[in-house]
Amino acid sequence: MTEPIERPGGRTSRVRHAVLRAAGDALAESGFPALDLAEVARRAGVGKTTVYRRWGNVPALVADLLAEMAEESVARTETGTLLGDLEANALLVQQTLTDPRQGRLFRAVIAAASCDERTAAALQRFYDMRIAEWVPCVEAALRRGEVPEGTDPTTVIMAVSAPLYYRLLTRTEPPTRADALTAARSAVAAATAGAFVPL
Known about the structure:
With 199 residues, this protein is mostly helical. It is built from nine helices and no strands. The longest helix is centred in the middle third of the chain and has 28 residues. This is TetR/AcrR family transcriptional regulator.
């Protein structure tokens, strides 16, 4: 007997959204070690068997959570200049990391990724998707001649968010708007100087 095809927005979609929301809340509150599928099911108001059957274990659930977060992330902003685009990117990252729920969630996932290979792989896929979303901004800057030929767009985008994540993980206070703008301007200055042209 074949499984029924679920319509977009049908019960399967609603259950997934509820479970992933509950998982994100639990992860932000208590961290990865305390994440429990049965507790997530209770929070989501669904049966334990549904959660165990669909996800099977915590790393698989976290991987799906990160996939949903990537899918629902805000699209890139195109301002017509590399500085404007990268400032928009940096501010988006900063706003995410300073969000009371999202900031704690990312700390928990990053900590889990250091000791769980499946979570690490899921986190990398999340960042790969977000970087790919913003790479066209640097490609456009290349066409406009704002940065030297051969500049690696991926490295430029990574250079914007790296200082903000570093601050998140090494300081008690989250990154500020000023930190975000400084990160963007630093990345533009480095890119303009040819720092991201592979040797």
